[in-house]
Write a structure and sequence with these properties.
The chain is α/β, with parallel strands linked by helices and 161 residues long. The protein has five helices and six strands; from the N terminus they run H-H-E-H-E-H-E-E-E-E-H. The longest helix is centred in the first third of the chain and has 22 residues. The radius of gyration is 21 Å and the shape is globular. It starts with a helix and ends in a 12-residue tail after the last helix.
């Protein structure tokens, strides 16, 4: 009898713990949320999402670039928590762009990348693979750096900015 009660108690406890796992909210980020999103989408937006109009404007610019033959992905970083497990890269857009480029390259994304933070912009030009995918040749970074040099930093944490 005591064994049955003990087994029943353990079963009830196991079911309770399992239900907590089902009811728990999804984690907001893994190590680097933008690298996961940018593998499948052209833009990563911050957790405090911008308006649909602002999203549409950015996605339209990315689509126009693609129609012109220029592949680019954009990561919009509003706050430290948008960087997941890498908050130390906040306020360092160029350093984060290099980090994110390496993450995306490891998953075979070889296009350009733009990072937007309140403090400014970071860029990575991407590259090409040769020798049956064994040799990576980076594209020149200068043109992208010149392109963002003339832009004013958002200097705001408003996601629409």
């Amino acid at each position: 009898m005591r064994f049955r009660w003990c087994a029943g108690g353990l079963l009830a406890l196991a079911l309770t713990v399992a239900s907590w796992g089902v009811a728990a909210p999804a984690a907001r980020a893994d190590g680097d949320p933008a690298s996961d999103v940018l593998l499948f989408q052209n833009a990563f937006f911050p957790y405090a999402a911008p308006s649909n109009a602002a999203k549409g404007q950015l996605l339209g610019a990315v689509a126009a670039a693609k129609r012109s033959g220029y592949i680019v992905r954009v990561a919009v970083i509003q706050a430290r928590h948008d960087l997941g497990a890498d908050p130390e890269l906040y306020a360092q857009p160029q350093l984060y762009a290099r980090f994110l480029d390496a993450e995306l390259r490891s998953a075979q994304y070889l296009g350009a990348l733009v990072v937007v933070m309140p403090q400014g912009f970071g860029v990575a030009a991407g590259g090409t693979l040769s020798d049956h995918g064994k040799r990576y040749t980076p594209r020149p970074l200068g043109p992208l750096l010149r392109a963002v040099r003339g832009l004013a930093a958002p200097q705001s944490t408003d996601p629409d900015t």
